[in-house]
Automatic annotation (TrEMBL):
Residues 550-563 have a biased composition (Basic and acidic residues). Residues 534-563 are annotated as: Disordered. It comes from the Bacteria. GO terms for cellular component: cytosol. InterPro entries: Amidohydro_3 (IPR013108), Metal-dep_hydrolase_composite (IPR011059), Metal_Hydrolase (IPR032466), Metallo-dep_Hydrolases_sf (IPR050378). Keywords: Hydrolase. One of its GO terms (molecular function) is hydrolase activity, acting on carbon-nitrogen (but not peptide) bonds, in cyclic amides. This is Amidohydrolase family protein. Gene3D superfamilies: Metal-dependent hydrolases (3.20.20.140). Residues 59-198, 401-524 form the Amidohydrolase domain. The lineage of its organism: Bacteria, Bacillati, Actinomycetota, Actinomycetes, Micrococcales.
Amino acid sequence: MGAVEEMSGRIVLRGGRVVSTEQNSLRSLGEQGLVSADVAIEHGVITEVGGVEPRDGDRVIDCTGRLVLPGFIDAHSHADGLVADDDVQLALLRQGVTTVITGQDGVSYVPGDGGYAAEYFAAINGGRPANAGSTVADYLASVDGTTRVNVGYLVPAGTVRFTVCGRSSGEADATELAAMVELVQQGLAEGALGLSTGLDYVPGQFQSTREIAALCVPVALAGGVYVSHMRGGYEANSRAGTEEIGRIAQLAHDATGRALPVHVSHLHADADIVLGALDALAAEGHDASFDAYPYIRGCSLLAMPLLPPALSAQPVDDVVRVLSDPDERERLRRDWFPEVARNPSLGPQWPSMITLAHVAAPEYEWALGLTLDEGSKRAGVDAVTFALDVMRASRLRTNMVMAVQNPRPVSELARIFAHPGHVGGSDGIFIGGHPHPRARGTFPRFLREYVRETGTWSWADAVRHLSASPASRFGLGDRGRIAPGAVADVIVVDPDAVADRATYDEPLREAVGIDDVLVAGVQVLAGGELARGEAAGGEPARGPLPGRGLRRERAANREGAAR
């Protein structure tokens, strides 16, 4: 299984059901919005939907008992440096994800030489690809024809600031700000979908509201989207974070006369807080959307909550020297770790809430999957000592899964996911031997838990949240629908079997129930395995690799942005 011939002829998906994209017809299709239909694909585009009779030379895929849906778009992915990796592609395609949006949280590899991201965010995004180049155009070109999935990119504001201002924590002066604005303009002109910030990371923590608003002026003018990991740690502080997003949008509007669409990354808090914050943005006239994943726990750099921002901003060699100095370690224990214990997301029980997912130090591989409390006891030291030792040994290349103090039930998450501004985003991190299960389970979990089991969504709703709305929101052209003229990014879903299998204990298990996937009309997943062509001598080739870097565009038949 898995070997298919890349054909230039027509493909017919026969005997399945599709979600109608015609709003008027949904009323007659029942609450699921499904209709029996064949789908014909030629030259990368859907050409017919309905009763399609196969012709000589057609390749027919039997979809009896299954749904033919537009490929899912992961609105928040950290596959930046890993999209060419077969294992990562398999993890995405088994979930039905055909497009990922990268450049998240204000940190990635371009513009600039990528050194900062490769150092600071390697435990999140992976190592910098050798062919990433130094511009958005370079990065997107490096994706073309090298992967089975599509990749969109946001200009990362932290990378922009570092490229211009280095490690400075001060306000940018006029010359520096103008240089940053120019880099954002260039990235947008080269196809970036918008601008991202990571205001709990560095140097995002040092960027003022006015600085970010200035960087958003070219975003508004270009019709892009401002995407933000908000300031302040989310949860109970989410309202303050969205209020700042609203101020940024208003300042950009005042400067341009154009509305700035805004998007909140991985929005997690109690449903009343989330919905209240979104209602407040809407009441102020802002066009706001957000992504959220169907899990309670988060995942990030271990250093983010456990080291002072000013220290994290320093070169890794300098940080390692601090972590190796007994006096400096004692100072951190005395002056900083009481602040960690007062962090509202963690509290004094922080050692039992943080589980090690990745440690780039072989001597600590035994600790993967253990909490800091468990690891420290096995190592025979206290939790502060253990945490500092791990960060020192890994040169900060450590990520972790973080529990929350008040886990939310499925019913409360359902209230959040029912909001029309929601789109699916995994925040998937593929680095580590014991990663967060969201990297391999987010989209099948949506289908299993919120369509099949709770009925929060119909199948038509699932297509809107996971395909149509993000395609529209981020300017991805004619994607996100099964209709003539649409790009043939298509998945075939078994509605009764689709499910996530990755868990916190076994996070590397692949999803089930999505076995056949096409990208640009080329089958890239066949029978649950990566499709491969034939190389010379009859050996399997790595391809086909129809994925491409997606440049911002407007669809001819575009649905309205998520609101």
